[in-house]
């Protein structure tokens, strides 16, 4: 179902490494929608640093490949996200040099089982096999003049169900790179997702999902029931 092989990443000169990082609560409306709950236990405040997680290698999936729904799950959340593909080793970046470390941008579907745990979702909700389709195209950074101002659209079975953008981020691309590389090094080929926008749509088995990010590209996958896939 998922790719699994090293060839999945051989999009020279980018060679995606397989380390795909997600970012939670980076969309300002998503954080605002939580209201006063962000000040309650156990967190007691809005996050002051990037809230990251990893999409493991087993989640990686190709453009056009099926996304298999776990048994007992009626719908999956479609997580349209801009993927920032690193081109240079990045450690302790500044806003002045952060974007110079970016090779390009791609379209990612950060698929999840719908959940209400916004700070620390269980890995079982985000890390099923095939839960991270990535476009086979990486658009060079120099062709994307304004990565924080791109339209993002999601279609389900040809119907436009979600219109958003890469804007309204708590941390834009440059600032997210600055804050992340303050405590960890990003390697060439790593992918850092900018986060999913509020009110992400859902799709059911049998439905075709298409994500388009302006100036970057398109990604499409069909969600299928587990029993519809060969073992």
CATH class: Alpha Beta
* Shape annotation: globular
| β-sheet strand percentage | 25-35%
Helix and strand element order? EHEEEEEEHEEEEHEEEE
* CATH homologous superfamily placement: Fumarylacetoacetase-like, C-terminal domain
Number of helices: 3
CATH topology: Fumarylacetoacetate hydrolase, domain 2
Report Rg. Answer: 17 Å
**Which structural class fits the helix and strand makeup?**
mainly beta
Number of domains: 1
Mean pLDDT across every amino acid position:
87
Number of strands: 15
Low-confidence stretches: 1-8
**How would a crystallographer describe the biggest sheet?**
6 strands, mixed
Percent helix among the residues? under 10%
Alpha-carbon distance between the two ends: 9 Å
Assigned CATH architecture = Alpha-Beta Complex
Summarize this entry quickly.
The protein is mostly beta strands and 231 residues long.
Features of this protein?
Fumarylacetoacetate hydrolase, domain 2; single chain; mainly beta; 6-stranded mixed sheet; 3 helices; 5-stranded mixed sheet; globular; 231 residues; 8% helix; 15 strands
Describe, in plain words, how this protein is organized in 3D.
The structure is a single chain. The protein has 231 residues and is mostly beta strands. It has a single domain (10-225), classed as Fumarylacetoacetate hydrolase, domain 2. It contains 3 helices and 15 strands. It has a 6-stranded mixed β-sheet with strand order 2-1-12-6-7-9, with no helix packed on it. Strands 4-15-14-10-11 form a 5-stranded mixed β-sheet, with no helix packed on it. A two-stranded parallel sheet has the order 3-8. Strand 14 (208-213) and strand 15 (217-225) form a beta hairpin. The longest helix has 8 residues, at 173-180. The model is unreliable at 1-8 (pLDDT under 50).
């Amino acid at each position: 179902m998922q790719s699994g092989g090293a060839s999945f990443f051989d999009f020279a000169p980018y060679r995606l490494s397989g380390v795909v990082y997600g970012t939670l609560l980076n969309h300002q409306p998503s954080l605002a929608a939580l209201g006063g709950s962000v000040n309650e236990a156990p967190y007691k405040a809005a996050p002051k640093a990037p809230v990251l997680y990893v999409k493991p290698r087993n989640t990686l999936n190709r453009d056009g490949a099926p996304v298999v729904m776990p048994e007992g799950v009626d719908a999956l959340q479609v997580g349209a996200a801009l993927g920032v593909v690193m081109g240079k080793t990045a450690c302790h970046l500044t806003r002045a040099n952060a974007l110079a470390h970016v090779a390009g941008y791609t379209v990612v579907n950060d698929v999840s089982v719908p959940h209400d745990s916004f700070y620390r979702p269980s890995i079982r909700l985000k890390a099923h096999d095939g839960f991270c389709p990535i476009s086979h195209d990486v658009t060079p950074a120099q062709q994307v003049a304004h990565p924080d101002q791109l339209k993002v659209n999601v279609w389900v079975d040809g119907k436009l169900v979600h219109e958003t953008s890469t804007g309204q981020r708590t941390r834009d691309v440059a600032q997210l790179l600055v804050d992340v590389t303050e405590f960890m090094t990003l390697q060439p080929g790593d992918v850092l997702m900018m986060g999913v926008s509020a009110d992400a749509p859902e799709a059911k088995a049998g439905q075709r999902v298409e994500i388009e990010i302006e100036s970057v590209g398109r990604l499409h996958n069909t969600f299928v029931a587990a029993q519809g896939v060969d073992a």
